[in-house]
């Protein structure tokens, strides 16, 4: 994959959660919640603040928690990915 996000954007691969309820009922795709957790595949160069380029706190390989409806969904090679602004990322999961 040859995608480089621009500025303060991050390319994230959402991590799907369990598709069954605790009682073992399988949920169809339209009944599942949108994932809010993902793995960072690529990051932009940073954000310009006061004429100075500041790198992002997020780096490739980080596992992050992001805003439920933040970012834009894209489909590349039949894989669903999201391009998210750094401000839509809520936390890094350690």
UniProtKB/TrEMBL annotation:
**Keyword Nuclease in annotation:** no
User: Key word Cytoplasm present in the record?
Assistant: yes
Keywords in alphabetical order, please: Chaperone, Cytoplasm
Which Pfam families has this protein been placed in? Answer: Cpn10
Matching entries from InterPro entries are given as:
Chaperonin_GroES, Chaperonin_GroES_sf, Chaprnonin_Cpn10_CS, GroES-like_sf
The superkingdom listed in its UniProt entry is Bacteria
**What Gene3D superfamilies does the annotation carry?**
GroES chaperonin
Q: Where in the cell is it found?
A: Cytoplasm
Listed under subunit, the entry gives: Heptamer of 7 subunits arranged in a ring. Interacts with the chaperonin GroEL.
PANTHER family, per the entry: 10 KDA HEAT SHOCK PROTEIN, 20 KDA CHAPERONIN, CHLOROPLASTIC
Q: What does this protein do?
A: Together with the chaperonin GroEL, plays an essential role in assisting protein folding. The GroEL-GroES system forms a nano-cage that allows encapsulation of the non-native substrate proteins and provides a physical environment optimized to promote and accelerate protein folding. GroES binds to the apical surface of the GroEL ring, thereby capping the opening of the GroEL channel.
Question: Which HAMAP family does the protein's record reference?
Answer: CH10 (MF_00580)
What family does the database annotate? Answer: Belongs to the GroES chaperonin family.
What protein name does the entry list?
Answer: Co-chaperonin GroES
Organism in which the protein naturally occurs: Berkelbacteria bacterium GW2011_GWA2_35_9
